[in-house]
């Protein structure tokens, strides 16, 4: 997939996450969330388990935004 398209997807997913952060924070606090096509496709408190789940789902990890929803604030992981 072309780098420009991947960047646009990443920006779109990031914007969606920002728009819905409060509700995501309430539901997924202290978990990693995986966002693709402006929706959460997986979540888990363990990063390695989340990655395995995404691989099982045959996700192209370049198209997935993963973020840890910390009680302390906002941290983008990949």
Overview of the molecule:
With about 80 residues, this protein is of the alpha+beta class. The protein has three helices and four strands, in the order H-H-E-E-H-E-E. It has helices at about 5-20, 20-30, 45-55; strands at about 30-35, 40-45, 65-70, 75. A four-stranded antiparallel β-sheet has the order 2-1-3-4, with helices on both faces. A hairpin with a 2-residue loop joins strand 1 and strand 2. It is globular and about 35 Å long.
- Helix tally equals 3
Q: Give the total of beta strands.
A: 4
> Separation of termini?
17 Å
Strand arrangement, major sheet: 2-1-3-4
Amount of helix = 40-55%
**Uncertain regions: pLDDT < 50 for 5+ in a row?**
none
* Molecular shape: globular
Query: From the alpha-carbon coordinates, what is the Rg to the nearest angstrom?
Result: 12 Å
Structural class: alpha+beta
> What is the N-to-C order of secondary-structure elements (H for helix, E for strand)?
HHEEHEE
* Largest sheet composition: 4 strands, antiparallel
Oligomer: single chain
Strand residue content: 25-35%
Mean pLDDT: 92
């Amino acid at each position: 997939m072309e780098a420009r398209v991947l960047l646009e997807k990443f920006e779109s997913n990031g914007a969606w996450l920002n728009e819905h952060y409060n509700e995501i924070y309430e539901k997924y606090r202290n978990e990693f969330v995986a966002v693709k096509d402006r929706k959460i496709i997986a979540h888990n408190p363990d990063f390695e388990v989340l990655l395995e789940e995404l691989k099982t789902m045959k996700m192209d990890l370049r198209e997935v935004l993963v973020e840890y929803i910390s009680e302390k604030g906002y941290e983008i992981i990949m």
